[in-house]
Design a protein that fits this description.
The chain is an alpha+beta fold. It is 38% helix and 19% strand.
C-alpha cells in the first residue's frame, strides 16, 4: 500500500449528501453544516469560495474545490454578495433570518435553487461524518484547496453530474462510490503539484531506500518490525535506513510505525462491530491492553473514549 492509498484507506461515504445547486446572480450561500469534507465543482458559471479568515478563491467551470470542515465558509457569485441562504447540519437550509428554504427551493431529484435553468450550476458532495473520511487525511489537508480543470485528467465530474439527477434503485450507493473516486482522483493530482504540502511519507515514497520500507510498514503493520528486520528487507544497513528515513519522513522508522498503527486503529475503532482485541491484532499489538496503553499515551484518550467521541 503506498502512502496515498494509506491516507484514503478506511471507511467510505455512506449516504453522502449530494446536491446540484442552480442560481442566478447575485447569489451567495453560507455553509455551516460542520461536515468534515466537501467537494465542489462548477458545471456552469463561476463562483468564489470564501473561507472564514482566508482569502477568496475563484472556482471556474471544471475546477474542483475541497473544503475541510468543520469551519464555516461561503460560496458566492462575487465576494461582495451577502449570503441569501445558510446550510445547517442535517441537510437543513434557511435564510439568514431563519426562514425555511428546503421545500421552497426544491427543484426535483437532488436539485436545489430558484429555477432549473439558472446561469450557475454548482455540484456539491459532502461527507457528513468523520468516520467516512480518514482522520489521517483530514489532518494533512489545508482548509481549502482548488484543483484547476486542466490539472485533472478525469471524466468523473461529468459522470457525477449525470448520475446526480437520476433516481433509480441503488443510486445512493452509485453516488457514494463516484464521490470516493472523485476525491481520490483530485487528491492524487493535488499531492503531485509543487504547491501542495504533501505528507512526508507521500514525498518519500519515490526514494529507493525509504520507499520500500514505507510500503512494507503500510502493507504489513501487524508484523513485529524492528529497524534491523526492516533494513534487511530493504537491503541497507540499520544506520543507513534510520538516517535516511528520519531525514525524509521526519521521524525514525519505529516512531512512524507506532503512529501508523495507531492511525489505523483509530479508523478501525469507528466501525461499530470492531472490538479492541480484534483491532489490536490487525495493527500489531499483542493484546487489547497493549493497544490501549499505546493509544492513551500517544493520543491522550483510551480506545473506548475515542470511539465514544467519534
Amino acid at each position: 500500500m503506498d502512502p496515498l492509498a494509506g491516507l484514503l484507506d478506511g471507511p467510505r461515504a455512506r449516504g453522502a449528501f449530494l446536491i446540484r445547486s442552480v442560481f442566478d446572480p447575485p447569489w451567495s450561500v453560507r455553509i455551516e453544516d460542520r461536515a468534515p469534507l466537501t467537494l465542489m465543482s462548477m458545471v456552469r458559471g463561476e463562483a468564489w469560495v470564501l473561507p472564514d479568515g482566508g482569502e477568496p478563491v475563484r472556482l471556474r467551470p471544471g475546477d474542483v474545490a475541497i473544503a475541510r470542515g468543520p469551519e464555516p465558509y461561503t460560496v458566492a457569485d462575487d465576494p461582495a454578495t451577502p449570503p441569501q441562504a445558510v446550510i445547517h447540519p442535517g441537510e437543513h437550509s434557511t435564510t439568514p433570518s431563519g426562514d425555511e428554504l428546503c421545500e421552497v427551493m426544491d427543484l426535483g431529484v437532488r436539485t436545489w435553487g430558484e429555477r432549473a435553468d439558472g446561469t450557475a450550476v454548482l455540484l456539491s458532495g459532502t461527507y457528513q461524518f468523520e468516520g467516512e473520511v480518514s482522520g489521517r487525511l483530514l489532518r494533512v489537508l489545508p482548509p481549502l484547496l482548488v484543483l484547476p480543470d486542466e490539472a485533472r485528467n478525469s471524466p468523473l465530474v461529468g459522470l457525477l453530474a449525470q448520475e446526480m439527477t437520476r433516481d433509480e434503485p441503488g443510486q445512493e450507493v452509485v453516488l457514494d462510490r463516484l464521490l470516493d473516486l472523485l476525491l481520490i482522483a483530485v487528491l492524487r493530482a493535488w499531492f503531485s503539484r509543487p504547491e501542495a504540502a504533501a505528507p512526508a511519507g507521500y514525498r518519500a515514497h519515490g526514494d529507493p531506500v525509504v520507499g520500500p520500507a514505507l510500503r512494507l510498514l503500510h502493507d504489513h503493520p501487524a508484523q513485529p518490525w524492528t529497524v534491523a528486520t526492516l533494513a534487511a528487507r530493504t537491503g541497507v544497513s540499520r544506520a543507513a535506513l534510520a538516517r535516511r528515513f528520519t531525514e525524509l519522513v521526519g521521524e525514525p522508522p519505529m516512531a512512524y510505525l507506532t503512529n501508523w498503527r495507531l492511525a489505523l486503529a483509530a479508523d478501525l475503532l469507528r466501525e461499530p462491530d470492531a472490538t479492541v482485541a480484534a483491532v489490536a491484532r490487525r495493527v500489531g499489538y499483542g493484546s487489547p491492553f497493549a493497544l490501549s496503553s499505546a493509544f492513551k499515551r500517544v493520543r491522550g484518550l483510551s480506545p473506548a473514549q475515542h470511539r465514544t467521541s467519534a
